[in-house]
Amino acid sequence: MNRIAAVNDFVIKFANVNGSGSASANELFAKAILRMGVPVSPRNIFPSNIQGLPTWYEVRVTEQGYLGRRGGVDMMVAMNSQTWDKDILEIEPGGYLVYDSTKPLAAGRVRPDVQLIGVPLTEMCNAAYTDPRERQLLKNIMYVGALAAMLGIDTDVIPQLLGEQYKGKQKLMAPNLDAYSKGYDYAKANLAGACDLSVHRASNVGDKIFIDGNAAAALGCVYGGASVCAWYPITPSSSVAEAFQNYCSKLRVDKETGEHRFAIVQAEDELASIGMVVGAGWNGARAFTATSGPGISLMTEFIGLAYFAEIPVTIINVQRGGPSTGMPTRTQQADLHACAYASHGDTKHVLLLPEDPHECFEFSAQALDLADRLQTPVFLMTDLDIGMNQRLTAPFTWDDARQYDRGKVMTAEQLQEGRDFGRYKDVDGDGIPYRTYPGTHPTKGAYFTRGTTKDSYARYSETGPDYVENVTRLLRKFSTARSMVPPSVLRSASQKTRFGVIYFGSTSPAMNEASDVFEGTDIHADTLRIRAFPFDPAVERFIEEHDTIFVVEQNRDAQMRSMLVNELGVAPARLVPILHFDGTPITARFIVREIGDRIRGSNVEPLTRGKAA
């Protein structure tokens, strides 16, 4: 058997039982490789129950810094007997299977093209520890020790990380360090030469930080001036509000008085949470909520109110598999239509589409600015892959001189001077009217906020011309947003080509890697990453410059493709959908295969749907 041999370039996957305490040990392993100066891209694949079902943790080790899933597994650490048969099928030929060898393997449960590496973890834990729960928890640390020895992780790295994790908690530190040492020593003594995968110290991490998108978005809301958060728990967005609470407790408490300069409300449901956010936005506060697809479904009536009454609202949608309950702990990009056109009637909403935690930080702050400037709901569209998985990303920066952009707000002085105030009056052609904060002036600037039709002075009206003027002005405002949203990002192929690729959001890491692969082949395609809706002018130019454009997205119905057709009037046959929607993050291998086969083929079939891999 030809064993896989690789240095700083492999995928290791841990198969565990949810609730067994494996998550912290697996994360410890990923952080240890980071400390070696080698980039990693970990992904936690977990069930939607609390305890008992299978869970996986996949770590891609890649000195080149690729952050997308590669596809395939070079080493499987199989700690769950229930998923054993499925787990070993994922291993690449010549790969490795690490297992608990306390009991012998049953005949027929192994593959001849996989290298078996047995470690008697249960036997060692039973001999060293007496408490049943401690045995279970320390078994995880023990296999991390064995892996460290086999892969060549420096001996001081994991003990240092354990010291940081359990600082001031010697009672926890001692048994964890002991279990790590036992696993490490066993592998050194018994498994020399068992594995041809290795980690060598490098310097490719630099000043990058390791953070998940939910925490990054929450911090962006703090820096962006949000003072109100109303939310209802839902996977995978709950940690946005929890992180906002933690950051505000450190950054938004008056040092002299101890007064909290923020309000966070866990509402009774999604309807209440969006209602509170709309009310806070009407009152002049910067407010947001965090939710996922089912929450958006419940919020749509309030979203329509905020759109028609023109109230600033920021909504962070961490997308998951749908419809209905769907796959709560899997990722998709399937809420584009639900958010872009949320509510009944004619609506169009601004969407921001970050690719990683760095843009989650930047775009959440920008969303708050845009909501104020445009006086409308703005969606930050992340997903589970970005939101709940730690990602290596560029450090965040913030200009302390930056001023919050509150948009067109008429002051008491302007009202006193006699300025004409029409709450829904377009004074300069951009579709954005002036607003006032409640209590701005004792006798002027008041208006009645309503979800019904009104004239430009907020007076109730059911006349056709008033309605047409109002909704047409809202469309002008949406067009104005094109110049405000983050522009798309172009990457040109090494030579002129008639093929283009459009992609967005969490597809970015896999697409970037696929583009690198294409550069070494006969495939040439320009790429454009869309970062917002409405589409900036570069999107239309990109489509005009290419005969065939592949639209890569993670949903079944090609939602981005249909938005391009509807909004830009593109001939559907020119846009070829490349779709991945099985709930796992898309891979570069999938993109290379699906696009490569079509470009190499004599005929491109525009309506062929790519199958999920």
How do the strands and helices of this protein lay out in sequence?
Elements: E1 6-7, E2 9-17, H1 22-35, E3 40-45, E4 54-62, E5 73-78, H2 84-89, E6 91-100, E7 115-119, H3 121-128, H4 132-151, H5 157-165, H6 170-190, E8 197-198, E9 209-212, H7 213-223, E10 228-231, H8 238-251, E11 263-266, H9 270-282, E12 287-291, H10 293-309, E13 313-319, H11 336-340, E14 350-352, H12 357-374, E15 377-383, H13 384-388, E16 390-393, H14 412-416, H15 464-480, E17 489-491, E18 499-504, H16 508-519, E19 526-530, E20 532-533, H17 537-544, E21 548-553, H18 559-568, E22 575-579, H19 588-600
Parallel strand pairs: 1-8, 2-5, 5-6, 6-7, 10-11, 10-12, 12-13, 13-15, 14-15, 18-19, 18-21, 21-22
Antiparallel strand pairs: 2-4, 3-4, 9-16, 14-20, 17-19
